[in-house]
Task: structure prediction
Amino acid sequence: MTEIYQFTAPGCLILCYTFSMKNAKYAMLLTLIYALACVSIPLSISALELSLGLLVLSLPAFLKSSGQRTGKWNKFTTISFMLLLFIPFLSLINSPDVSVSLPWIRRHFFMIIIPVVMITAPQVGRHWKWFLGLFVGASTLAAAYAVLQIFFGETLSKPFFWKGYYVLSGAFFSQPNTLAEVLTLGFLAAILATWLARPLWIKLIISGCSLLVLAGIISTRTRTPLVVVAVAGTWLVVKLFGKRGVMMVLVVLILILAANQSNKRLFWRFRKIDLNHVTRMQIWHYGIRGFATHPVLGIGYGNFREFLKTHVDKSHQDLIRFNHAHCNILEVAATTGIVGLIIFLLFWGRVAWDMFNAWRHSRDQVQKAVFLVIFTAFLAFHAEGLTECTLKDAEVALPFYILVGIFYATWKYRPGKINN
Result:
């Protein structure tokens, strides 16, 4: 899979060009980059990596001309972020195979997207509603494709990848499980867009998009994202729409039950799951065992599969195909030890605290709603991360890092300014 930092040649051209640009032209370039990113998130990981690579490479020019800093990040958050960024290198001490660790460390450095988005997003903040619309629209297209696959199967997939329901993640869409995880964020964004819309006909269109995205999540046969989006979506709909929200939840529930009774084919992929709970508990068992063998610095970042090769019982040889512990917290504990786990919890705990306070203390209703959706998306991501290594999948982690960066960028606005 193409990594964002491999676009050196076009990136250097963009970098040279931005040094000669005025702030107005740079803001226009940023608008195009963010528009490309919003469309790419649920559709193309390669295009997303390209847009974020250009964003990273253009940042030095912006800092040179504006002198802007990280705003709401205090020293504690900054220090814990830097420690979390570099902690995998410390875990190499216990790594059985450094060559295996390094590719995962490179992907871990995608976290740098958080401060980059945080610094650049305010320059295009006046377009945020358009970006939201682009993301919801792209999520709707991705969901429609997932739903159509139920009826057309490999016939629909052949132009992209030969494995039927699994589509090449580096080309167009992602695998079903990662697509469902990204669509979870798209579903929450659709709820916010519905709440923000004013004309009734636009509300109806966006509401239809949110239902289609929900159907797309169902059709990916991935249970955890569906549970997460159901709980988070119900909370948001009730919170943003009040009594009407309760009625909307009941209508959706009735529609789902009716569809399940009249056409069971719609739900067969949801019932068909590759990893049952027994397999997952076995993986967690070896994750705990990895932490117990190297409690301080872990077994080495990215080396979970190498650990399995030498520690699994004969009856569990099939587990060697897995390269992570299927749990963010357990993966961090096993591969980076107690040192990495503490830093991990400190940083993400502080981000959660900042989001919670931003939501509770905001007086502007639109800003409060935006913070509520972002905070809910944050909780949904980490709730799903209890059963998946979501931070190990670039398709899922990059949109999440963008979300966190956007939160800190938005937090800089004065109350009411976000309405512009």
In short: Residues 4-275+324-419 form one domain.
